[in-house]
Amino acid sequence: MSTINVLGLILLILMVLVGGKAGLQSFLALLLNFGLLFLAIVLVAFHFPPLPVTLVVGVLVLALTIFMSSGDDMSSTVAFLASAVVLVILVLLIVPVEHWALVQGFGPEDSEDLEGLSVLVGINFVQVTTATAILSTLGAIAEAAMAIAAGLSEILEQHPKVSTRALLGDGIAVGKQIIGTTFNTLFFGFFGGFLALFIWFTGVHYSFGEILNDKIFVSEILMILFAMVSVILTVPITTWVMTRAVAGQRKRAAKQMSKK
Amino acid sequence: MQGLLKRRKVTLGLWVLVLLIGGLLVWATQHNAGLYSDPIMQVTRVQKGQTTKDEDDFHNVDYQTKQKLYGHILNGKYRGQKLTVTNTYSLSGAMDQRYRKGSQLFIVVHQHQHGQLTATAKDAKRDTALVFMLWLVVGLLLLIMQFSGFMAFLSVALNGVLFLMAIILNGSTQGARVLWIFGSLAVVFAALTLWLVIGANRQMLITLATTLGGTALSIIVALLVFHFTHEKGMYYESMQYVTQLPRPLFLAETLLGSLGAVMDESTDIISSLFALKRERPELSATQVFKSGRQIGSTIMGPLINVLFFIFVADTFPMAMLYLKNGNSWGYTFSMNMSMGVVQSLISGIGIVLAVPLASYLASRFMEKKVRA
C-alpha cells in the first residue's frame, strides 16, 4: 500500500474513534473537498472560465464543510450564509489586488520545475492565480464562521431573551477569543508550506528589496493576508447574519402568538 | 457615561491615526524608488505592437504581443533620463508581464552611448500592493478587534521574527539540522504564542502540553508509516524550491504546518472545559473528558480542512499546466499534489489525536475548583 493510502486509513480510523458519526462525516467532507478542488483544476484546464468555476466550487466547499461537520441547524445555516457573503467580498478584494500586484503564474524560482513544460497554454494566469488565492482561504472562512456561529448559538441557548444589539457585542467578544489562535493556524500553515522558499531566499542571498518585489514571495504573502482579512471579516458578518436570523425568528414567533 | 464617551473618542482618534499612517506608507512605497539600487522605470506611454499566434505541441493556442514602453528612470545615476523599452507579453502571462501606463518596473540598463539608453524590462515593482494589503489587515484588526487584534498581530509579528532567525540559523548550518532547528523552534513558538493568548497559568501549561504532544505524536505516526510503507508514492523530487536534503525539510514543513492548527484546537477545547468547570464545579473528570471529546469532534473536521486548502490549493497553477501539457490525471496528482495531501493527512492525524489528549489532560490536571 502506498503511504498516502495508509495515512488516509489511519486518519479515517482515528476520526471515527474520536468523533463517531460526526468524525466519519468530516472525513467524507474532506474527501469530497479534494474531489471538488481537483475538479476545479480539470475544468479550468478545459478552458472553463476560472472565476465562475472557483465561485461555484467555493460555495460547494463551504456548504460541504459546514453542513457535514456540525449538527445544529440554525448555527450551520448562519455560518454558511455568512461564509458565502465573506467569499463574495473576498472575491471583490482579491480580483483587483491580484491585477495590481502582477503576481500571476510562475517566477524565476520555478524555472527548474518548468523545464520541458510549455507555459503558453492560452489560459489567463491572472485569473488562475486569483482562483488559487480564493481557494486557499476557503477552509479558514468556513472554520471561523462555524466557530462564531457556534459560540453565539450557545449564548442564545443560555440567554434566549438577549437583545440583538447585545448579541452584536457578544459576537465581537467571541471573535476576539478565536482571532489570536486562528491567525496562528494561518501563519504556521502558510509558513510551513513556504519554508523551502524562504530557505532559498537566504541561501541565494536575495537582497531585502529583491524579496519584497519577488513574484512568488509577494504572491504567497498576499495569500496569507487575504486569508487574514477573510477571517477578520467573518466575525462581524457572521454576527450580523445571526442577529438577522434571530430577529426573523422572533418576529415569526410573535406573529404566531398573536394569531393564537 | 462620560468615561465611555472619552474611550470612544480615543478609539476614533486611534483609527484616524492608523488610516493616516497607512495611507502615508502606501504613498511612500509608491515613491520609494530612491531606496533601490536597481534602476526603476516609470511608464508614461505604451504603444501596442504586433500580435503573433503561437501553438505548441499539445495544440494550446496562445497569443504573444509586443509593446513599446516610453518612460523615465526614477532613481540611481540615470535618474530623470527618458528611455524606451520593448517588452513581449502573452495572453496567459504565466512568465511574462503586461505593463500599462503608470506601471513601475525594474530594468537592466545595457549601454550608454550618445546619451541614448537601451534597457530591458526585468520585473514589476510589487511592494506597493504588499504594503497596501498589510495596512488593510492591520487597520481592520484594530477597527474590529481593538486590543485583542493588536495582541494577535503582535504574536504573529514575534513569530515571524523568530521564524526569520531560525531560517538564518538553518542557512549557517547548511541545512544539516533543519529538523532540530525547527523542532525546537516549534516549542518556543507554542510557548510564546500561548503565553500571549492565555497568560502564564495552569491552563496555558495544559494547552502547551497538548499542543506539543499532539504535534509530536503526528510526526511519530508519520515516521512509522514511512518506515512500513517504504515511502511508496512519496515524490520528494516534486517538492518546490528545494535547496537542501528534501526529507527532513518536508518533515519540518509538516511539523510547523500542523503546530498552529493543533494549538488552535487545544486552546479552544481546553478553554471551553475550564469555562465549563467554572460554571458547574460538580462535574467529574469523566464528564469533563466526555465534553472535551464532543467539542473536539465538531472542530477537528473544519481545522483539517483549513490546512488542506492551504497545502493543496497552492498547487493549482502548476497542476493545471501539467494537464495542459498532455499529462495524465494520475501523474499530475503525483507530481504536484501528493506531497501536499500527505502533509494534510499527517497534520490531520495530529489534530485528531489532540482531541483525546486535550480532554484527558484537562480532566486530569484541572484544579478541583477552578478560580473564577
TrEMBL record, chain A:
<feature type="transmembrane region" description="Helical">
    <location>
        <begin position="186"/>
        <end position="209"/>
    </location>
</feature>
<keyword id="KW-1133">Transmembrane helix</keyword>
<feature type="transmembrane region" description="Helical">
    <location>
        <begin position="6"/>
        <end position="24"/>
    </location>
</feature>
<feature type="transmembrane region" description="Helical">
    <location>
        <begin position="78"/>
        <end position="97"/>
    </location>
</feature>
<keyword id="KW-0812">Transmembrane</keyword>
<feature type="transmembrane region" description="Helical">
    <location>
        <begin position="117"/>
        <end position="142"/>
    </location>
</feature>
<dbReference type="InterPro" id="IPR012507">
    <property type="entry name" value="YibE_F"/>
</dbReference>
<dbReference type="Pfam" id="PF07907">
    <property type="entry name" value="YibE_F"/>
</dbReference>
<keyword id="KW-0472">Membrane</keyword>
<dbReference type="InterPro" id="IPR014564">
    <property type="entry name" value="UCP031503_TM"/>
</dbReference>
<feature type="transmembrane region" description="Helical">
    <location>
        <begin position="221"/>
        <end position="242"/>
    </location>
</feature>
<protein>
    <submittedName>
        <fullName>Multitransmembrane protein</fullName>
    </submittedName>
</protein>
<feature type="transmembrane region" description="Helical">
    <location>
        <begin position="54"/>
        <end position="71"/>
    </location>
</feature>
